[in-house]
Design brief:
Elements lengths: L1 E5 L1 H4 L7 E3 L4 H11 L4 H4 L10 E5 L2 E2 L15 E6 L5
Parallel strand pairs: 1-5
Antiparallel strand pairs: 1-2, 3-4, 3-5
Length: 89
Amino acid sequence: MASLHFTQNLARHTECPTAAIAASTVAELLERYFATWPGVRDYVLDNQGEVRHHVKVLIDGRNLRDRRKLTDDLQPSSEVYVFQSLSGG
């Protein structure tokens, strides 16, 4: 099962524990996660179902390629990290 992790920055706003979920794509992984933790959805996805501009998703250490439809493939051993991008100076 793929592991889904969220940073502490997001955890300050909503409960988002790490979870191991059987999924073959990022879309499937997130939908299954949001079924249990619906409060996290609006922090990660916009109203079009796309990853928000200020959110970064890494799959096994590489950037998510398809931020619109979330079709990136996952392996059973995949590690997915979701965190807010920081900006400013």
